[in-house]
Amino acid sequence: MRKNDMNSKKTLISILIFTFIAISSRCFGQLTDTTYKVNAVVGLGYSYFFSSLSELNGFNPHSFNATARIMWQPEHLLRVGIESGYLSFYTYKQSGFTSEYGTTDVKSSLSAVPIILIFSMELFKEFEISTGGGVYFLFSEIDSYDNKVSSSVFSTGYYSSASYYYPLNKDIKIGGELKYYYISKIEDADISLQFVLKYNFLEY
């Protein structure tokens, strides 16, 4: 009986040690596994504005824009975030414009600050597609007859993009991004090609 008791105790101790090791390794494994990430993406690049005004002489649809977004990246494929920035859509210049008030040079421009809710997914390694919607705060300026008039209005719209990243290290990636913005109020769109920098600043 004593021998059986001793064997039973050894078996119980072995089971407890095995269970403790299994639980400990599982816990430490979870501590080192980064389930969630938060990263920032900043971009700067060329922009082309699609508009019916492009037929006018003096209309310039070429410009540059800058954007920034914060993305929350869980362990599954879908990520969510918010993007904003400054989008310069077009400039327009006409010399010798004549009206009932006389002759003048006319200058005008349109720009926007978007606030967009974005959903992103990694299709292939380091290749992502994104889509979303939000609001665009539009700012227009007209300068004529030595008088500058500024106005602002907001519009809804949507957004889509495709991007590729090249990792420099664990937290920093660089790449390129093709973006498409559509503004509902003016029924025009903007496409841009940006150089982007992605920085992973939080893991938990």
Order of helices and strands: HEEEEEEEEE
**Overall mean pLDDT:** 84
* Overall shape: elongated
Query: How big a fraction of the residues is strand?
Result: over 45%
First-last Cα distance:
53 Å
Which CATH top level class of the largest domain fits? Mainly Beta
Describe this structure in words.
- It is a single chain.
- By secondary structure, this protein is an alpha+beta fold.
- It folds into two domains: 1-33; 35-203, Porin.
- Helices cover 15% and strands 69% of the residues.
- It has one helix and nine strands, in the order H-E-E-E-E-E-E-E-E-E.
- An eight-stranded antiparallel β-barrel has the order 1-3-4-5-6-7-8-9.
- A hairpin with a 2-residue loop joins strand 5 and strand 6 (127-144).
- It is elongated.
